[in-house]
């Protein structure tokens, strides 16, 4: 059973809904390593050294500084930083409701589940249902951990009928997302023949739904298997690097090869790509004889 991380209150209009936050992801499922001394296997301890005299600096002598120019800093005390930090009220104040599909996923950050706390069950169900029926999500500000987060609340279906819940998706602020205009993308257009072949390749592996269970973290599973071999005292087998497939430079040939790999013929419907046999040149014997000038 999941453990609640914190309590919060959703507010919109004059309605307040007490909720509990639960982690929606499991970062602990990853594999992490510790740094050890290769000589004796002891854990290594991180220390901070002064760049000027090379001495180890204890934590009580550290201050935070902002570099406003090259090697020039303004420093802040803990009291000065607390003065500008957001008061952690644990309030999730809804500012507006927007169509759920109008929020670009590029703004998505960490997700959390929200469940009703004691006394908030009825209002929680009402909020979930009205958002589900309207197809809208809620954009809100969440004051927690001395910060003011931008979040989106969206309804998600539960395992049981009538058990839909809320996901609070932490969002990035606009200035945290770089515009695509900063990326050099050359202009150009695809030909009709290329589009038709590419559409066939897409349809080969198209699906009407996404099943995350169908995808596994192969690297993590291989690493876990090797860790178990090491713990059992066995040697780790180093496999040879897989051979890289031959690279096809021509786009049309690459699309056709993709279709052929799955046994599907390429259908373009364009005259440019129809492989008609070349018409043989007429032989000298087939040429019409020149008319005689004699009467």
What does this protein structure show overall?
- This protein is an alpha+beta fold and 295 residues long.
- The protein has a domain at 85-176: Beta Barrel (Ku70, Chain: A, Domain 2).
- Helices cover 20% and strands 24% of the residues.
- The protein is built from 5 helices and 9 strands, in the order E-E-E-E-H-E-E-H-E-E-E-H-H-H.
- Strands 1-2-6-9-8-7-5 form a 7-stranded mixed beta barrel. It has a two-stranded antiparallel ribbon with strand order 3-4.
- Helix 3 (192-204) packs parallel to helix 5.
- The longest helix is centred in the middle third of the chain and has 14 residues, at 121-134.
- 9% of the residues are buried.
In short:
With 295 residues, the protein is of the alpha+beta class. It has five helices and nine strands. The protein has a domain at 85-176: Ku70, Chain: A, Domain 2 (Beta Barrel).
Topology:
Layout: E1 6-12, E2 15-23, E3 64-69, E4 72-76, H1 78-84, E5 91-99, E6 108-116, H2 121-134, E7 136-144, E8 147-156, E9 165-171, H3 192-204, H4 218-231, H5 251-261
Parallel strand pairs: 1-5
Antiparallel strand pairs: 1-2, 2-6, 3-4, 5-7, 6-9, 7-8, 8-9
């Amino acid at each position: 059973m999941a453990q609640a991380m914190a309590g919060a209150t959703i507010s919109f209009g004059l309605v307040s809904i007490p909720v509990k936050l639960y982690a929606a992801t499991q970062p602990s499922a990853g594999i992490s390593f510790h740094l050890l001394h290769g000589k004796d296997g002891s854990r290594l301890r991180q220390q901070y050294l002064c760049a000027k005299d090379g001495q180890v600096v204890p934590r009580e002598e550290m201050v935070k500084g902002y570099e406003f120019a090259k090697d020039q800093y303004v420093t802040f005390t803990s009291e000065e930083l607390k003065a500008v930090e957001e008061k952690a009220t644990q309030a999730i104040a809804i500012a507006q409701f927007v169509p759920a599909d109008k929020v670009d996923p590029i703004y998505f950050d960490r997700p959390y589940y929200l469940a009703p706390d004691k006394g908030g069950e009825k209002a929680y169900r009402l909020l979930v249902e009205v958002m589900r029926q309207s197809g809208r999500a809620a954009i809100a500000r969440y004051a927690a951990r001395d910060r003011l987060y931008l979040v989106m609340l969206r309804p998600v279906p539960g395992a049981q009928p009538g058990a839909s819940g809320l996901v609070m998706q932490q969002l990035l602020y606009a200035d945290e997302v770089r515009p695509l205009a900063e990326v050099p993308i050359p202009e150009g257009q695809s030909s009709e023949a290329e589009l038709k072949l590419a559409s066939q390749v897409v349809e080969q592996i198209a699906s009407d739904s996404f099943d995350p269970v169908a995808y596994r973290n192969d690297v993590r599973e291989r690493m876990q298997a090797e860790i178990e071999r090491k713990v059992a005292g066995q040697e780790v087998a180093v496999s040879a690097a897989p051979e890289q497939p031959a690279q096809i430079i021509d786009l049309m040939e690459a699309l056709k090869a993709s279709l052929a790999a799955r046994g599907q013929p390429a259908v373009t419907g364009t005259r440019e790509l129809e492989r008609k046999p070349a018409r043989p040149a007429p032989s000298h014997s087939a040429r019409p004889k020149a008319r005689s000038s004699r009467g």
